Amino acid sequence: MPLPIGPPIVNDDFTFEAKAAPGEVIVRAIPSGAAMQWAVKSVTHDGRDVTEDGLTLASGAAVKGVDIVITNRLQSISGAVTNERGEVVTNVTVFVFPQDPERWFPRAWTLTATAVARPDQNGRYSIRARLQPGDYYAVAVEYLDQNRRSGDRSYLEELSKNAVRFSIREEESKAMDLRIGTPR
Q1: Is CB count within 10 Å lower at the N or C end of the chain?
Q2: CA angle 112, 180, 123 (to 5 degrees)
Q3: pLDDT per residue as tens digits for the range 27-63
């Protein structure tokens, strides 16, 4: 995917201009600083959703009618993590990932399909994210292998065996307590 050439220009009325090389491009608004509580909800071009597929730019062409919708209405998932004896556990990672294996290895520009959190000193975790609405797994593990989580189907299949299944809609909050799972 071609990258923008130079920073975009954002006008006072929130219209924007950006230059990019010809070819396939993905349009995103990347929040920073105080805006980190915002996330891309959708990108449309002349009313057609191009959030995941992007646009094809012709050389020298100006593209108009691109709308980026951002939201601060994120989903939240929270709960406690305990061990098999019901004791609070703090030294674990909570990993949320889609139930659909086709979404396990999204393209780099795809909107968020996973989330990660660590419990606090009381064993409580809290995730605030913009996940695509749908069906997910949540699992607490002592060690989450970052390399394998993003490219190893058998690893995610193993994690899913110890996971809690749940569904989440836009702007929904879920409370889920988890029990530590150890992949076999």
Answers
A1: C
A2: 80
A3: 877 766 666 678 888 889 999 988 888 888 888 888 8
Angstrom distance (rounded) from CA 122 to CA 126: 12
Grouping H, G, I as helix, E, B as strand and the rest as coil, residue 67 is strand
What residue type is 179 in one-letter code? R
> Which of these, 169, 16, 2, 164, lies nearest to 95 by C-alpha position?
164
Q: What are phi and psi of 40, to 5 degrees?
A: -65, 130
pLDDT score of 88 more than 80:
yes
For residue 143, what are the β-bridge partners?
none
pLDDT at site 183: 45
Domains and their CATH numbers in the chain:
9-71 (no CATH), 75-179 (2.60.40.10)
Q: How far apart are CA 89 and CA 119, in angstroms?
A: 8
Residue by residue, DSSP assigns 83-115 as -TTS-B--S-EEEEEESSGGGSS--TTSPP--E
